Amino acid sequence: MNESAPQNSNCRILLPSVLEFLSRGPKKLLIGGKWVPAKSGKTFETINPAHEEVLAIVAEGDNADVDDAVQAARKAFEGGKWPVIGPHQRARYLFRIAELIETNAKELAKLITLDNGKPIEESIAEAARAAETFRYYGGWATKIYGETNPSDPSLFSYSLREPIGVCGQIIPWNGPLSTISWKVAPALACGNTVVLKPAEQTPLPALRLGELMLEAGVPEGVINIVTGFGPTAGAAIGAHPDIDKVAFTGSTEVGKLILRASAGNLKRVSLELGGKSPNIIFADADLERAVALSARGVFRNQGQVCCAATRMFVQESIYDEFAERIAAKANEIKLGEPLDKTTTMGPLVSQEQHERVLGYLKLAREEGADTRAGGERGPQPKGYFVKPTIYTGAKNGMRISREEIFGPVAVVIPFKDENDAVIQGNDTIYGLAAAVWTRDLSRAHKLARALKAGSVWLNCYGIIDPIAPFGGYKQSGFGRELGMHSIELYTEIKSVYVKL
Ligand code: ADP
């Protein structure tokens, strides 16, 4: 076996460019504009979760490689071309990256699906969103203003908004391209340089994007990519004394580790963490729409979404009907080969995640929930498949209702009235997202205020647009990404006084 060749039984439906990328030899780290092996010489395998087969061999970066990447990023920030390049040119780079993502969207989408397991249609949409986010922040690069401050007449005072410096960015596997665009695009728009660590489960889309960024002409050291594991490469970024800001998306548990590690040099920190989002359906809602979009809200990306609609609160009078209809929707989902366009749910990302979710299905039975759909692994002989699962008879106090499962699993819980819906909805350590389905406009807006969540969807679910902030209340993290809020995350403000 050629250890770097794809061993995928679906090679026949892969694009030649994807095959070429996969078979080009062990994947390397991008440091200072060059592709280099890990200093230790170590590598790891990235696996296709639909077939449990090795897709590619990837460099396993650690502390020493992160050190090199930080040095390259520092050099590019302080002394390279980047600080003197100016906003118009930075904007052009970001627009060019957006164009290259679009030109190579099919290939990137296939890499996302191969590495992560999500259905190809979802990967195509992810590549399009990533391009849009780069384009959106390309627009911002020329619109980052300071202020003139109305100081004493004998003074002239103004403020400058400046890049922070070297940014460490640690991203998860559930949106391996979109989460990069959320972090890299605003960081570069503001004039920072980046050390990016993709998740070990899905390094390939990031590495291909790295190639495209070099093709776009991004100067050396501005983007550095260190693939590797969380406790080694990730922890080295969290603790590095010469990284000025760290941005993390992932589990609440690891978010807390990052926060502790960042205290060493008081890095600026933004954390986008877990969720257990309430999706509240009133009796007066458009039920057909609520059922269809709630199913999508929890089952998209196999439920491996931080803002997934995992706790469905349904008003008592429609509880049985809703439960029956959402279970029927779950049973309509086509679980299988994610590269097949007719598939609507693929495998979970990894064996570890598969075992974790199957563990929760066992727990649901022990806690006495009623299985209305799914509740078991998929019938496929290979691959990390789990059937879309709906539980009724669950209480908000059960562990399956409180802990983030990160799989295609929802609990359906009854509520009496508005007050009860808000109390149960807010009864969680998380606060990332919430949704309300009702035809009563004032009730919808009242609940939007009462729910403690960073995003609230009214009669819809899961809409995210780069123009609007996204982030969490409570243990779902802090700092808001997207919109102008990412510009705030990636800049320092300096006040200047002149004595007249
Ligand atoms: P999940 O549990 O969903 O895999 P994690 O929070 O473990 O999410 O992972 C998200 C990202 O954080 C990945 O890139 C992972 O490698 C990284 N990571 C995991 N552990 C650590 C750590 N101790 N320090 C820094 N990064 C970490």
Commentary on this structure:
The chain is an alpha/beta fold. Helices cover 38% and strands 20% of the residues. The strands form five sheets. It has a seven-stranded mixed beta sheet with strand order 14-15-16-13-12-17-18, sandwiched between helices. A six-stranded mixed beta sheet has the order 9-8-7-10-11-19, sandwiched between helices. It starts with 15 loop residues before the first helix and ends with a strand. The model is unreliable at 1-9 (pLDDT under 50). Bound molecules: adenosine-5'-diphosphate.
Helix/strand structural class: alpha/beta
Give the fraction of residues assigned to helices: 25-40%
Count of strand segments: 20
Bound small molecules, which ones? adenosine-5'-diphosphate
Percent in strands: 15-25%
Q: State the strand order across the main sheet.
A: 14-15-16-13-12-17-18
Taking all residues together, what is the mean pLDDT? 96
Overall geometry comes to globular
Features:
single chain; 500 residues; alpha/beta; seven-stranded mixed sheet; 38% helix; binds adenosine-5'-diphosphate
Topology:
Layout (H helix, E strand, L loop, with lengths): L15 H7 L6 E3 L2 E3 L6 E6 L4 E7 L3 H16 L8 H17 L1 H12 L3 H21 L6 E3 L5 E9 L2 E5 L7 H12 L3 E5 L6 H12 L7 E3 L4 H10 L5 E5 L2 H11 L5 E5 L5 E4 L5 H13 L11 E5 L3 H14 L18 H17 L2 E4 L15 E4 L6 H4 L6 E7 L2 H9 L6 E5 L3 H10 L4 E4 L18 E2 L4 H7 L1 E9 L1
Parallel strand pairs: 7-8, 7-10, 8-9, 10-11, 12-13, 12-17, 13-16, 15-16, 17-18
Antiparallel strand pairs: 1-2, 3-4, 5-6, 6-20, 11-19, 14-15
Helix pairs in contact: 2-8, 3-5, 3-7, 4-5, 4-7, 5-6, 10-11
